[in-house]
Amino acid sequence: MELTTVKLVTIIAEAVLEERILHDLRQLGARGYTIGLARGEGTRGIHASDWEGKNLRIETLVAPEIADQILQHLATHYFPHFAVIAYTTDVQVVRGTKFQR
Amino acid sequence: MELTTVKLVTIIAEAVLEERILHDLRQLGARGYTIGLARGEGTRGIHASDWEGKNLRIETLVAPEIADQILQHLATHYFPHFAVIAYTTDVQVVRGTKFQR
Amino acid sequence: MELTTVKLVTIIAEAVLEERILHDLRQLGARGYTIGLARGEGTRGIHASDWEGKNLRIETLVAPEIADQILQHLATHYFPHFAVIAYTTDVQVVRGTKFQR
To answer: Which has the higher per-residue pLDDT, C48 or C68?
Structure first.
């Protein structure tokens, strides 16, 4: 079995941004995503005390060049206006699995 | 304090597969796991619009050789039949902690 | 766009430890965090069968030296007494974003 390295892009954002972010991810080439619930408090003093309608963790496995484009897009269009965290991680998948779910 | 690198295996799968996957993880040598709720949409067009009974994120910290065996096992026995995502990440833990929880 | 590598610290702990751990993270220099729900079973035989009030996944993006201090602190003050998992991962962020949320 051969492994290959791809990028996991993780985005933490307010739930109201879900549709907009997912639309952008698809436009930038992401083929699937996973969403989990989150809450947090950060450098801007935002606090979410319950689990409903607050923050989402959006994750997508993509090729490195798409990961770069996603980060660039978020930095340009989201970071100035919204409380969004985004980071990428190198992960290993089975070659040929096409990030399926 | 000395750190050591181990593998974090992340599996996103339908909730109905939980018992089967956890059984397999134990058989392959995993000694503990963490489960979170997830939903997603991917290359097969699966869509989960609510949080109940849909997808789980299953994570386990294991030695590299066990991580390889888990990916191999999933690729052989799950990928052809189920909408499963799996990937491994290098993470650092405190040496001697035995991935405890 | 320039990327920089920082450390993602992930902590899985019982929900009753939330305030204590968050206090310690702030004291050690973390400027924000994300929390998700989790459950698990591990080497100590702890089992959480439902989602309420059991385990939390606490994540924070920090500089490498702060990540080391957090792991050291957890290993000294939590591992002997509580069922806590902690690990760090190298992740890439857009330089200058200051881990914002």
So the answer is: C68
CATH number, position B29: 3.30.70.120
Q: How far off is chain B from C97, nearest CA to CA, in Å? A: 23
Flag whether A43 is in a domain: yes
Q: pLDDT at position A95, please?
A: 82
Q: Quote ipTM for the complex.
A: 0.86
pLDDT of B20 higher than 50:
yes
A99 located within any domain = no
By the 8 A CB rule, do A86 and A10 touch?
yes
**Minimal Cβ distance to B43: which of A32, A36, A91:** A32
The residue type found at A58 is I
Residue at A81 is within a domain: yes
* Domain tally, chain B: 1
Range of the domain at B50: 9-94
pTM: 0.89
CB B43 within 8 A of CB A99: yes
Signed CA dihedral, C15, C17, C23, C29: sign only = negative
Report CB contact under 8 Å: C87, B31: no
Residue A98 lies in a domain: no
Chains that touch C (3 or more CB pairs under 8 A): A, B
Tokens representing residue C43 in the block: 């080497």
